[in-house]
Every structure is written in C-alpha cells, then in structure tokens.
Amino acid sequence: MTFENTLEFAKQLDSQDQLHKYQDEFIFPQVNGKKVIYFTGNSLGLQPKRTKSYVDEVMNDWANLAVEGHFYSKKPWWDYHERFANPLSKIVGALPSEVTVMNTLTVNLHLLMVSFYRPTKTRYKIICEEKAFPSDQYMFQSQVHFHGYKPEDAIVEIKRREGEHNIRLEDVLAKIEEVGDELALVLIGGVNYYTGQVFDIKTITEAGHKAGAKVGWDLAHAAGNVKLELHDWNVDFAAWCSYKYMNSGPGNASGCFVHEKHHNNNDLPRFAGWWGHNKERRFKMEPTFDPVHGADGWQISNLPVLSLAPYLASVEMFDEIGMDALIQKRDKITSYLEFILHEIDKEVDSTFEIITPSNPSERASQLSVLLHGEGRSLFDYLMKNGVITDWREPNVIRLAPVPLYCSFEDMYHFGQILKSGILK
C-alpha cells in the first residue's frame, strides 16, 4: 500500500480497520482536556472498561459469600485460574494443559529454572542476549551463584556486531554451536525490550536442543504482541507478564508455559506448594506432594483472585478478536508509523534512525527511534502535548502503536506534534 501523510488518509485507514471500535473499550488518560496518544503499552497497557465489572464481581462475592466464595461464587475462586487455559493457549500457541498463571514474571522464571537449569561440572553455561532486561540479568547472575559458578564463567552473552543495533540470527546460532557441550540453557527475551527486535524462536530453539540444552523464553514483550507457536516450536518453558500488551494492570500476574513433554517427568525437580498438588485431593491435606498434571503443577500458592480478575477480562477480549486480526493491524499501523517518521524526517534538520529491524518478521508493535540532534527536551515536549511515550538514554524514544487502542489518526497527529516539537 502507498501511504500518505495526511489526516484524510489516516481517517480512511481507520474506517477500514476492523479493530477500530476497540478504542472505545479502553480508558485513556487526558492531557489538556484531550485523550492522549498512548505509545507505552509495551510498559503498561491501558485499562479496559470491562475490567471494573470483573473486579467488582470478586469484591461483591467476597462481601456476600466470604469464604464460601471459593466454591459458590459465579466464578468459584478455587478454580478461577482454569478459565485462562483456553484463551491463553491460543495467545501463545500452546495446549491448554501447557499454560497457567501464577506469581510474577521474574519469580516464575526463577521457579522454572529450578526445573530446567540443571548444571553439571561440564554442562553449566547459559546463553542470553546482550543487554537483556536488567531483571533477567540479575536472575542469571543469582542463579549461577546459587549453583556455585561465577557469572563471568557461566553466562555467555550474544553481542551485537560493531556499529549494529540488533543481534544477527547467524551469530546466535554460531554461539550456540561454539558453546556446544558446555551449554545447559538458552534463555532469551522473545522481543528485546530496548530495540524491539523479535528473535526467531523456532530456529533458536531447534539449535539449542541440537546442542543438548534446554531452551526457555522470556516473553514479556512478546505475549499478546507476537504470533507464537510454543508447542509446535518445542519450547521447553516460557513465562511472560500480563500488564504490557495484555492490559491486566500494574505488576499483575504472570503466565507460564511448560511443554507437555515434561508433564510426566516425575524426576524433574520443582519447588512445590499446596496449589500445585492434585486438585481432587488438595483438601485432604496429604503430606506428600502429588503434582497436578500439566503446567498447573508448577503453581505453589493459591492465586490472588483480585489480581486475576483484570487479566481474565483482557484474555477474554483477546479471545474475541484472535491473534491473527491483531497481527494484521499491528503490521499495518507499525508500517504507517514508520512512514510518518520518515516523512517528518524530511521536513526537519534532525535525523531519525529507527533501530528496530525494518523487516516485518523481525519486529512487532514497537519502533525504537534514535533521535540524532535531539535530547530529553523533545521527549518532555511530547509528553506535555499529549503523547505518552518512553525515553531511554542516550536519546531513544520507544513507540508502541498497540493495535487494540491506537489508531491511524493517532499516528498522523503524533507526526505533527513531533515536527512542531523539533521546529519550536
């Protein structure tokens, strides 16, 4: 499609957009009396209007039923999490038995590493990407320390080539082959939080397995944003947060994936707890742990239903729409934003360098833009003029045109505000 940098063209694209109506499903902050252009769904998604009714339902059941709400509320609390199995499995490409919700992201990655990072004297190294999200870096360091290794010996970072912003797939595969028999685990972010690069999960997982390692993924920026086929790609495990692209609220519960090939392995270590015990026998208070079959067997404590309620509201919205429709709009609106940036670049003295890959298969709903010749004052101008975006040092803004609630008209108006901020 040939794009145009005009308001009329943007409105035309919105009129053809099947998902345009979903903008009305969300609550937008306001600046100067107008709803904002929201580009930070990669940090915290907007609140769906339907969320309040899901939370109110739990609050009312708590008020009216108290402890009996575990079994007699409309959505009984004791199996509340089971309502996530079908919609979540579609979002991440899994069997319903392979997904669960519990805890928060880094907690879950730690718990999953109990099962899948089993270092030996000869096979103990972990491969990750350079400049992974700091929480992942801290997790790797503490895990290898716990097992008696030094991070500088056990953690292998795949680096970007000199002068390049993204990691080449060929370099990932070469590093896996190089580490070879010393490799215990590959654990990479499915989408790099800084650059927005989407990694080839299928190919990297195959390479890790060929080297004899387990392969897991941090899908914080991928779940609800990228087309995933975790089961078919034979991924060992994965975890993701729910508050970014899945709009479940700040710091909310994490999702987990454990491939079914591991479900019957009773020798696989895990940190056990009451809620992971055989559901039919849980209230018999038995002394020996008998895990639930499937990913639910990795649960530890009973779940915070008040936190799950907003997440359930969101995944049911995803189930209505389907990932294919989301991906289709994601690609189109991201391409339109890219076009707008290039058009504005022609009209100003500053230079915009998009460090996110230009290949649509290597990016999702994020463009990270290096603003040559501009500083923090431009970011401040955008924020004061109703564009909520994200600043990363030294001079990068991250723009996430989330297809659920961003419009093509938003992209046009952003371009005009950006231009005025530079020319002011």
Question: Could you give the topology of this structure?
Answer:
Elements lengths: L6 H9 L10 E2 L2 E2 L2 E2 L1 E2 L8 E2 L2 H15 L3 H4 L12 H8 L6 E4 L2 H12 L8 E5 L4 H13 L4 H4 E4 L10 H11 L3 E7 L11 H10 L3 E5 L18 E5 L12 E5 L46 H17 L1 H25 L3 E4 L12 E6 L3 H9 L2 E2 L1 E3 L3 E4 L8 H16 L1
Parallel strand pairs: 4-15, 7-8, 7-9, 9-10, 10-11
Antiparallel strand pairs: 1-5, 2-3, 6-12, 11-12, 13-14, 14-17, 16-17
Helix pairs in contact: 1-13, 2-10, 4-10, 5-6, 8-9, 11-13
Pathway: Amino-acid degradation; L-kynurenine degradation; L-alanine and anthranilate from L-kynurenine: step 1/1; Cofactor biosynthesis; NAD(+) biosynthesis; quinolinate from L-kynurenine: step 2/3
Protein name: Kynureninase
Catalytic activity: L-kynurenine + H2O = anthranilate + L-alanine + H(+); 3-hydroxy-L-kynurenine + H2O = 3-hydroxyanthranilate + L-alanine + H(+)
